[in-house]
Every structure is written in structure tokens, then in C-alpha cells.
Amino acid sequence: MSPFSRRAFLGAAAVSLVAGCGPGDGTGVRTEGEGGAGSTGGDGSGAGNSGTSPSAPAGSAPPTAGSPPVRLLIPAIHVDTPLLRLGLAADGTVQVPPITAHDRAGWYRHSPAPGQTGPSVILGHVTVGSFGDGVFRHLSELRRGDTIEARLEKGGPARFEVTAVRTVAKSAFPTQEVYGDVDRPELRLITCGGAHDGDGYADNVIVFAAPAADPT
């Protein structure tokens, strides 16, 4: 793992998930052992409400290492979302995107950027209160081999293929599998799932993705 991602996940063994999905809330991730660093995230960089984005030019440059992602596309479930940049809240939980009618996903900016060695983490809501479905409402419907594309601020897109989709109880969140050291760029998409008891969701849906094969 790169020095950046080692710093980002310092104390990774202590990372745990809490039942933080309140009504309409899509995530609930606590990163203990990172202190309050980065609590001013969620700056909205790369945000916008348009449902369209320019296509990557043919023969575009490869992803620029460390370049932040600004957009996420998942064709199989019709997701095309700008990406917020999320940090840590004052209570040590990972910030989540705001509850709005124009729901957006967010990249946890203390994780590696897509295309950089390590697990890049993107979070989104499954529902957004009275506004209805969240951007990751259909995340659990993804299947192995489905494609995911992260558009970066600099360089070409980082492309991934789904390797696994898991629904897990919050009490059994697979910390090491999600945040643990890997020797290549990988992607983790996280939202809530399972039953909703009025206070929150019982489970988390986690999508694991690896670099897509070169189409050429």
C-alpha cells in the first residue's frame, strides 16, 4: 500500500462500523484510531446536480495517481453521480452526503483515490428521507463483472469490475476486507441495507471491485 493509504488507514484494525443509519441515512461508518483529522471534509468538490457528464475521449491518458474522483458511473444500476469529498465528523464517524432531493455519493478523502494502490471508499445513501430513493438505492443489485467508472479530476477514468456484493450485519462488518492492505487499486462502495426499524438500517451493503480488464 502506498504511504498515502497507510496514513489514511492508520489503525485499520480498529476501524469499526456503528449503527449510524438513521431514518433516510445511507451509511454509518466509524473510523476509530484516526482522531479528528479531516473532520472538515464534505466540501462539495466535484459536486453538481446534472444527470449528464462528458464522455471520456478515446485514447485518454491513464488515471493520474492520487487525483481525486469527481464523478461515479455505474451503468448497470443507472448511477451517474458527482462525488462529494467526505472527511470525518466530530464524533469520529465518516461524514455522509447531505440529505437532499439531488442525492450524491461521496468519496472518503482519507482513502486512496481510485486508480491508486489501496481500497478507495465511496459512500452513498440508500434512501434520503422524504425525498425517496438515494443514489445507491439499487447497489445490492450489482453482479460480478458489472462495470464501475470513476472520473478523476486529472487524467483518464479509473475503471473497475465488481468482484463481490455482500450484505452484512453492522455488528459483523468485515473491517479488514474493506479497509485492509491490498497490492493494487481496488474500490469499495458502501450503503445501508436490510430491515429498517424506524431508527436505522440493520445491515450494510458492500460492493468490492477490482481494476477492469483492458478492453483492447
From TrEMBL:
Pfam family of the protein (one): Sortase
GO molecular function terms noted in the UniProt entry: hydrolase activity
Compositional bias ranges of the Gly residues kind: 34-49
InterPro entries: Sortase (IPR005754), Sortase_dom-sf (IPR023365), Sortase_F (IPR042001)
SUPFAM superfamilies referenced in this protein's UniProt entry, alphabetically: Sortase
Keywords: Hydrolase
Membrane spanning residue stretches: none
Gene3D superfamilies per record: Sortase
Keyword Transmembrane helix: no
Region Disordered: start-end pairs: 21-67
Residue spans of biased composition, Low complexity class: 50-67
NCBIfam families hit by this protein: class_F_sortase
Protein name, entry field: Class F sortase
Organism: Streptomyces doudnae
